[in-house]
Specification:
mainly alpha; disordered N terminus
Length: about 220
């Protein structure tokens, strides 16, 4: 450990006491983002940046459900296979999936072959179609649950100690009321973090300012 409280690990990553790590590329990232190339790219260009595209929003809700009991890195590495298997997460198409599609998906080694999670995505696709008919768009619906920035909480070490926020609990409760599956408060908050409804990049992370700027320019649906 150096005098400033940082630690250089064997992989060359320097972890700061604020939870930010500096990789060999010189980029400072949130502590979780430097363990794999896929994480670095996802952290730097996707996580925390606002999204209003209904298909991407549905994809993320679906993949968060698949992540239950697994690491996000596992799901991220399988994301191309998930997109091929689930019609690029175009939920109008998935809503038409039948038992033959379930059998096809259960035989697909490229994805997580869990019947309950597969059937949840198909069910949720139908619910998403209904939600769009009722609310205009999935984006309009989910962004109504954007937390007030003043309610964000950070622990004294500066690590992400923010969720699940009250808004994520409300989102999960309302989705369940509408018949969605695999959408608990923790899943809902992870979705909010990833889709930019909150900016949980740590202070000192190089992506934080970029995410803040994107959120400032973002036209809420």
């Amino acid at each position: 450990m150096s005098e400033d409280g940082t630690v250089r690990r064997e992989d060359g990553v320097v972890a700061g006491k604020d939870g930010v790590v500096a990789g060999e590329d010189g980029v400072r990232r949130c502590w979780w983002a430097n363990s794999a190339p896929e994480y670095r790219a996802y952290h730097d260009t996707e996580w925390g940046f606002p999204v209003s595209d209904d298909v991407r929003l549905f994809e993320k809700l679906s993949l968060e459900g698949f992540q239950a009991g697994l690491s996000w890195l596992t799901i991220l590495r399988k994301r191309p296979a998930f997109r091929r298997a689930f019609a690029r997460f175009e939920f109008e198409r998935i809503a038409g999936f039948d038992e033959r599609d379930v059998a096809r998906l259960l035989a697909d080694a490229g994805i997580v072959r869990h019947r309950g999670k597969i059937e949840a995505v198909i069910n949720n696709a139908t619910r998403a179609v209904e939600l769009v008919q009722a609310e205009g768009s999935l984006a309009h619906y989910v962004w109504a649950f954007e937390p007030d920035a003043r309610t964000e909480r950070v622990d004294r070490a500066g690590l992400a100690e923010r969720g699940p926020a009250a808004e994520s609990k409300a989102l999960a409760k309302d989705l369940k009321r509408r018949g969605w599956r695999f959408v608990g408060p923790t899943t809902a908050y992870a979705f909010m973090q990833a889709m930019g409804l909150v900016n949980d990049h740590l202070d000192g992370c190089d992506a934080r300012a970029s995410a803040d700027g994107a959120r400032a320019r973002f036209d809420r649906p």
